[in-house]
Amino acid sequence: MATRVQALEIGLSIDKQADISTASTTFLHMEKTNEDITSVNYATVNDAAFIGKGNEFISDHGVFPVSQTPSNRIEFWGDATFLIWSLAYAMGDVQEATGLYTIQSLVPGTSLQLPYATIVEQLDESGSAAIDNAYLGCCVEDVTISMNSGPGPESVKVTTNWIGSGKYTSPSSVSLPDLSTNHFLPSSSAALTVIGVDYVAATTIESVTIGIKNNLLEKDGFFPGSGTQNGASVRGRLEYGVRQYTLEFTARLLNNSAEFTKLVGQTTGTVVLTLTYDSTHTITFTYGAVSFERVDYTTVDGIACVHVVCAVKDPDGTGHPLVVTGKCAVTGIGQPAS
After folding, report:
1. Is residue 168 part of a domain?
2. Predicted confidence (pLDDT) at residue 38 exceeds the cutoff of 80
3. What burial letters (b/e) apply to 274-299, b meaning 16+ CB within 10 Å?
């Protein structure tokens, strides 16, 4: 027999791990749109090049474990809960009050380690588990949020890439709850103001792309004493490197469009983008200070447009270039276990 990938079940920890080795205990049971299945990525080396064994071939006992380094991506439409989960674990500073979240980037003086998540994958085949793994010490490497013109929930897409410590349990011993209810935030719900211009009121906005990349120090996670499993090295820490927060948008070109003038003058201002499903499922991105780094003329469906790459700045020296506020029905995302 065989089984289709649609039977793959994904669990994302609600509470953050107490440390890189201690699994979370509460989970979201989520859907996704990409078919990727996580592998342990058990790596080996061999003795083919060793001198003194008489030939250039791998000897009978000449294969040795190196590491196990699971990683994967999750792609989904812009569901409020998945967005908040992705941003909470990508940015790290998470304050929550009964489903109302305020999320900012961690300050290096506070911690170089983002909150660790446990990610579960389960797949049954013929009534038994073909896959039942809980990956521990997972960190979000990057999140990309793409908002495009068009109707329906597919107009906002989220791609979240994560990297694991290498520690895992199999079987996971996790009983996932019922599937989470989706609350998609379509691009038609957007409100967007960029440096004093309401692009929704002007009916000119075509697309927006938000990016967060942590440049995790993957190799540095293997240090003396970082740990082993199955004879292979695992990471004892995952720290962020030089983080990059990006923002780009494309808008229709008008005779009074001022993007190039703002580029030349290096005009600085705020950006506020809000997406809404209802009063309890919404998210707002606030950039305290941006200027324009590049402005190019382009076309969308034969319409003359301008594509703008923003320089995302730290507005007040606190290390918080982006503040996200959001609501969903799930409490405790990115918080310590109660």
Report:
1. yes
2. yes
3. bbbbeeebbbebbbbbbbbeebeeee
